[in-house]
Amino acid sequence: MRYRATSPASAGEAQTVTIQDFAFTPQTLTIAAGTTVTWTNNDASPHTSTSSNGAWDSGNLNQGESFSFTFTTPGTYDYVCIYHGGMSGTIIVT
Question: Is pTM beyond 0.90 here?
Answer without folding.
Answer: no
